[in-house]
Specification:
Blueprint: H1 3-49, H2 65-77, E1 80-84, E2 87-91, H3 95-104, H4 107-124, H5 130-155, H6 163-192, H7 200-212
Helix pairs in contact: 1-5, 1-6, 2-3, 2-4, 3-4, 3-6, 4-5, 5-6, 6-7
């Protein structure tokens, strides 16, 4: 009789632990999906409201779409990996094709080439699961829109080469690096169910250094 209740109790405990783990995973998935949808909505508002009305790059020539797409694909192959506990955060070199797109492409071409090139790499090379892929695609779209708006806000009406153009490029890439660190920290916090701020300074510093270089 002693073993009977004990076994039953263990069964209930195991079932409760399993259900708790499933509920926790489900809750974290819902939170990440919510963030992904919110970022996609923000990107859509930015594009429809402002980005689509921006002029093309100030350079006198344009970069072919396939070349820009390959540049974004390559930026996601060669990445810098930073490990925080059990999670690994990857910092790409996407600032390079972003600057090329800002100077040599239209806003729509920059966004589409970013999604196509980086998205193909995440699917084929990294084999990312669907939820993570959708999050990254929404993140790329927001970053491209913010880069375009920042670049044009600093550059102003002038398209002449010079310090103002350089400042606009630096401002766009640094802003994207900071935004990327913020969104990655936010999604990690939502996934784990608690705020993860301890790694943010290191992620932001690494992102800004890569952007400036």
């Amino acid at each position: 009789m002693t073993n009977g209740p004990a076994t039953k109790g263990n069964s209930r405990g195991d079932r409760g632990g399993w259900l708790g783990a499933v509920t926790s995973v489900h809750a974290s998935t819902v939170r990440v999906v919510g963030l992904t949808v919110a970022m996609a909505a923000v990107a859509a508002v930015l594009y429809v409201g402002w980005v689509q009305h921006l002029p093309g790059g100030p350079a006198p020539v344009h970069c072919p779409w396939w070349a820009l797409t390959l540049a974004f694909a390559g930026s996601e192959v060669f990445v810098i990996h930073l490990q925080f506990r059990r999670d690994i955060h990857s910092i790409s070199l996407s600032e390079i094709p972003i600057i090329i797109g800002l100077l040599f492409a239209s806003p729509l071409s920059l966004i589409l080439c970013h999604l196509l090139g980086a998205g193909a790499t995440l699917v084929i090379h990294r084999r990312q699961p669907l939820l993570k892929l959708l999050f990254n695609l929404s993140k790329f779209t927001v970053e491209a829109c913010v880069a375009l708006l920042t670049f044009r806000a600093v550059l102003g009406p002038s398209d002449a080469l010079g310090p103002r153009l350089w400042s606009a490029a630096f401002a766009a890439t640094v802003t994207v690096a900071l935004l990327s660190a913020l969104t990655v920290t936010l999604v990690m916090s939502l996934h784990l169910g608690r705020l993860q701020t301890q790694q943010m300074p290191e992620v932001m510093a690494a992102g800004v250094v890569v952007a400036v270089v």
